[in-house]
Write a structure and sequence with these properties.
14 helices; 73% helix; mainly alpha; single chain
């Protein structure tokens, strides 16, 4: 009597590893920032949800692309916090996830209108260009500034009449993005230099990059406070002062503390946007 045939089961994809490989904290922070912009601009619940969905898809694609491109360097550096480097996520699954998220990002972005969709897709393309080429050049800050700076355009161009965002808002978003780049790279500068990655933060060194990150992010919060018309509310000055104290306290700290400080300031920026409203 023949032995029963073994039951073939589909390979399982480690969901936890995939989630860790998408850079969940930055992805969530950028999505929240965009959703706050949409809510403050009057996009309504449906428009805000659409904005958040498109930005989330774009951020997921960028995060997965980043870890996939850096796989060899992360393995060489012994990065235990990278699921691909430790085998916690298959490279093929991460590649497929990045491409699927990018494909989903296109219709979600264009659903806001051709001009709004184009603005967001240019920002996502800039982030992919950072991963694939610009990360190791002196222009490494530019994709961050461009991608963040285009977020307000994605929001406002989706409104009736497709109005352009105010310059102070685009400038604040661009400064926040550039500051996030300098802060995010700080813990990895030594490993990056060993691997031959020479972006602008690596060329300037940790101390200068930490100072620049703090100044850029503080400049972003200042623009959000002073840019809108009308008097600055008292709570705005209080929030700006707390932002400065937080940056001073975390700027020279080791590890990822400076980046977490920038994320906290980004949350404060969200509060400023919501407090000042659609003006």
């Amino acid at each position: 009597m023949p032995a029963p045939s073994p039951v073939l089961s589909a390979p399982t994809v480690p969901v936890a590893g995939l989630l860790r490989a998408c850079h969940p904290l930055p992805a969530a922070a950028v999505t929240l920032f965009a959703a706050a912009l949409a809510a403050a601009a009057g996009r309504g619940p449906a428009g805000t949800a659409l904005t958040a969905g498109a930005v989330a898809a774009g951020q997921l694609s960028v995060g997965w692309c980043n870890d996939r491109v850096d796989l060899r360097r992360d393995r060489a550096a012994g990065r235990r916090d990278k699921p691909l480097a430790t085998g916690g996520a298959p490279a093929g699954a991460v590649t497929a996830a990045a491409l699927a998220a990018l494909a989903l990002c296109v219709p979600l972005s264009l659903a806001a209108g051709p001009a709004a969709g184009a603005a967001h897709l240019v920002g996502v393309a800039a982030a992919w260009a950072y991963n694939l080429r610009l990360k190791g050049t002196a222009a490494s800050w530019l994709p961050y500034a461009l991608a963040f700076g285009l977020l307000p355009a994605f929001v406002t161009l989706g409104l009736p009449g497709a109005p352009r965002p105010p310059l102070w808002l685009s400038g604040a978003a661009a400064l926040l993005g550039a500051g996030a780049h300098f802060a995010n790279v700080l813990p990895d500068i030594a490993d990056d230099l060993a691997a031959g990655v020479r972006g602008l933060p690596q060329r300037l060194g940790a101390r200068t990059s930490a100072a620049l990150a703090a100044l850029l992010v503080l400049g972003s919060a200042t623009l959000l406070l002073l840019g809108p018309p009308g008097p600055v509310p008292p709570h705005g000055w209080t929030l700006l002062a707390l932002t400065a104290v937080l940056l001073l306290a975390t700027g020279g700290a080791p590890g990822r503390i400076p980046f977490l400080g920038v994320m906290a300031v980004a949350a404060a920026d969200v509060l400023l946007i919501l407090a000042r409203g659609a003006g």
